[in-house]
Amino acid sequence: MSPPPAPPAPPPILASSSNISPYLWFTGMAFAARSLWSQSVLSTYIYITVSESPTALGNLTGLMGLSQIIASIPAGIISDKYRRDTVLKISLLFAFCSIGFITAAVFYSSYAFLLVGCACYGSFYGCVYTAGEALLSDSTPEGSRSKVLTKKQQVQSLGTCLGPLVALCMFAGLGNEWTKEDCAWVILAGQAAALPALLQLCRMSDDRAAADEGEEDAQKGLLDVTAEEAAEEERDESTDRSSARSSASRPPPSPYSRRVPITIAIADLISGLASGMSIRFFPIFFYDTLDLSPVTVQVLYIISPLSIVYLSKLARSLSVKHKRCQTHVFFKWVGVSMMSAMLLAYHFDLPKPVILICYLARTACMNCAKALTTSQMYDYVRKEERGRFTVLESINMFSWSGSAAVGGVLVGKIGIVGNFIVTASLQFVATLPLFTLFHLPSEEEQSLARKRLSAGRPRKSTLEEPLLPVDKDQR
């Protein structure tokens, strides 16, 4: 009997689905437009026009987050029960309303119009993120999610630095001053730049989702692969031996255990609460406390996402050896340390470049490893539930936006520096739930098992704990 033919080589990730490319294009262009008008300019515009009130800025950000979570809940249900591309098309209505109201707010200097426009934007992003991320996961071969999501994070960061680059050129031409009129022109340019990004959503379709049809069977097949076999294969391929033994020391949950995504969502929720309290007030800190010019602030917002691009690549490389949760926690702790260093540098009146370097290091480290835990979350969520679990991420973003209102109150009570101290403390606490996931098998251990299954290699009969054992209620 002739041996069975070798399985065909998998296609390149970006070629495996026509949904991945348009979603990456959308992410890059949408975040370029968003960073142009929202990242630093919107905060300063509101601060200047609404009587230098931090509460007004916090309320607007909180409303944006509230509208996002309100829209994301039905969006998640509809995308799971019917079609995800339908939700993406509905989101376009919110997008056009947002552009119209924000444009009118600038022309009529209306804070009320700005509130309505940002609420529409929150609804738009709630629909897009919920359905779009689920469709992206559907279209990504199982075992490649961390690579695709890291690429998405890099594209997002590159887009985020493009907006400040355009704003820098505009401020340089308009006079390099924080004025209401100059900020208004930059905001209008951001609304116009958002239009090409919306066209990319029309290219996405559920019918083009090319997720591995055997994903569920492959993951269920992992139940029969022992940690001993994984360790033997790793020795043969000269890979890391200790990771397989450590993963076998404590049984992980089943392939579709909800405990894993819920734990990650809790950690993200606490981190989102912390980040939302301060992120909108960094531009105010630069403008009002450090007295930086608009061009200098835009340079910071260009360097920061470029640093995230580099560190995200480094983080994924480290996760190959040290696993995803461990790498995520490491970079979070470095980010908290840099935040503390920034506050100490300000307290002891060190030169501004020292403060700004600490800020850049803090921002890059806090944001570079997000794709690792997100990919791990989707690895443990069934395809038909991904839209609803993406709502958990929207709740996290709501906490980010909603806590901006709390941040505005804290700034009024204890000042911006006191607010930053609370932020750093909560961000440290947010890493603690992830310690319960340190025992999960690495992506490489799972890939090793998938290769064995694809090649049709026989599995040993053993009573040892499997690499991914079944929960008690599934036995």
UniProtKB/TrEMBL annotation:
Pfam families: MFS_1
Residue stretches in coiled coil: none
Keywords: Membrane, Transmembrane, Transmembrane helix
Region annotation (Disordered) ranges: 213-256, 449-475
InterPro entries: MFS, MFS_trans_sf
Amino acid composition bias (Acidic residues), ranges on this chain: 226-237
Keyword Membrane: yes
Gene3D superfamilies: MFS general substrate transporter like domains (1.20.1250.20)
Bias-annotated ranges (Basic residues): 449-460
Transmembrane segments: 60-78, 90-108, 114-136, 157-178, 184-202, 260-286, 292-310, 330-348, 394-414
PANTHER family according to UniProt: NODULIN-LIKE DOMAIN-CONTAINING PROTEIN, TRANSPORTER, PUTATIVE-RELATED
Name of the protein in question: Uncharacterized protein
